[in-house]
UniProtKB/TrEMBL annotation:
<feature type="domain" description="C2H2-type">
    <location>
        <begin position="94"/>
        <end position="121"/>
    </location>
</feature>
<dbReference type="InterPro" id="IPR036236">
    <property type="entry name" value="Znf_C2H2_sf"/>
</dbReference>
<keyword id="KW-0539">Nucleus</keyword>
<dbReference type="GO" id="GO:0008270">
    <property type="term" value="F:zinc ion binding"/>
</dbReference>
<dbReference type="Pfam" id="PF13912">
    <property type="entry name" value="zf-C2H2_6"/>
</dbReference>
<dbReference type="GO" id="GO:0005634">
    <property type="term" value="C:nucleus"/>
</dbReference>
<dbReference type="GO" id="GO:0000981">
    <property type="term" value="F:DNA-binding transcription factor activity, RNA polymerase II-specific"/>
</dbReference>
<dbReference type="InterPro" id="IPR013087">
    <property type="entry name" value="Znf_C2H2_type"/>
</dbReference>
<feature type="domain" description="C2H2-type">
    <location>
        <begin position="10"/>
        <end position="37"/>
    </location>
</feature>
<comment type="similarity">
    <text>Belongs to the krueppel C2H2-type zinc-finger protein family.</text>
</comment>
<keyword id="KW-0677">Repeat</keyword>
<feature type="domain" description="C2H2-type">
    <location>
        <begin position="182"/>
        <end position="209"/>
    </location>
</feature>
<feature type="domain" description="C2H2-type">
    <location>
        <begin position="122"/>
        <end position="149"/>
    </location>
</feature>
<keyword id="KW-0863">Zinc-finger</keyword>
<keyword id="KW-0479">Metal-binding</keyword>
<keyword id="KW-0862">Zinc</keyword>
<feature type="domain" description="C2H2-type">
    <location>
        <begin position="38"/>
        <end position="65"/>
    </location>
</feature>
Length: 302
């Protein structure tokens, strides 16, 4: 909903929000109603509007047709893909004046600055250990759960407390703190590894060396080609252990399984509504206006 420019003559009597038209006001007022007449015939979740249940059902169908040809990130919405691809081009909204690292989220930017200041505002209420980021604290708190499985050997960054399964991954990550960078000769963006830089440069050169031997479509990243080829083979290697439904990508399976558990780990910072995927959160944020969408910060909830 875009009610940010021009004269606003239609005002909601419940919350005072002003809208540009009667139609937009009517749509907004539905957010105050508890009536949810539209039900998903797969998981029985209910919605206020018909288009919401249509969009929701794509989660079960695994329809993520918009794929990033750089890293393989897939989404249901073209707009979300376009926003994501800005990460590869270095078109950031927030930039650290100490190390030059860029961010799209003000929340991520604030947490990043804790690395430089040494501040650790997220403290475990069980053992008192503190962390620079909320995600690091949440990962740590799982070790206190009664049914927690014995943790695998992890390698933790002494600077920001981020943890990695493999030591090699930690060493690559540490370079982001040390200032060791590989610079793009086109745009000046810096990367911690030569391979990441090589992949990024293809955004500028248009190089797509990974070609599908079935249809001839080309991709800049090998991973994206492998995901694409599943379309031709019909292979769906990721299977839900609860209902047996199969998916081509693990990320789609992860989101699907939340329809069984009811988990909604992505929270809107404007209205606190929660969602099963970041894609749905991004789509929802547009209802709060473009500024909320592009400058959003999200938190992960239990």
């Amino acid at each position: 909903m875009k009610c940010h420019n021009g004269k606003k003559e239609f005002k909601c009597e419940t919350c005072g929000k002003e809208c540009l038209s009667k139609k937009l006001l009517k749509r907004h007022m539905g957010s105050h109603s508890e009536d949810r007449p539209f039900e998903c015939d797969i998981c029985s979740r209910k919605f206020k509007r018909s288009y919401e249940v249509t969009k929701h059902k794509k989660i079960h169908q695994g329809e993520k047709n918009h794929v990033c040809d750089v890293c393989g990130y897939a989404t249901m919405h073209k707009a979300c893909l376009e926003t994501h691809q800005k990460r590869h081009l270095g078109d950031y909204l927030f930039k650290c004046d100490i190390c030059g690292k860029g961010f799209f989220s003000s929340f991520e930017f604030r947490e990043h600055k804790n690395i430089h200041t040494g501040e650790k505002p997220y403290m475990c209420d069980i053992c008192g250990k503190a962390y620079t980021s909320k995600n690091s604290l949440m990962a740590h708190k799982k070790t206190h759960e009664p049914d927690a499985k014995p943790t695998e050997k992890v390698h933790e960054c002494k600077i920001c407390s981020k943890r990695f399964k493999y030591r090699k991954s930690l060493l690559v990550h540490v370079k982001s703190h040390s200032g060791e960078k590989f610079l793009c000769d086109f745009c000046g963006k810096a990367f911690s590894t030569k391979d990441t830089l090589k992949l990024h440069r293809r955004n500028h050169t248009g190089e797509k060396p990974n070609v599908c031997n079935v249809c001839g479509k080309a991709f800049s990243a090998l991973y994206t080609l492998k995901v694409h080829q599943l379309i031709h083979t019909g292979e769906k290697p990721h299977i839900c252990d609860q209902c047996g439904k199969a998916f081509t990508q693990r990320s789609t399976l992860v989101v699907h399984k939340r329809s069984h558990t009811g988990q909604k780990p992505y929270e809107c910072h404007v209205c606190n509504r929660t969602f099963v995927s970041r894609t749905l959160l991004n789509s929802h944020l547009r209802s709060h206006g473009e500024q909320a969408y592009y400058k959003h910060s999200f938190s992960v909830v239990n």
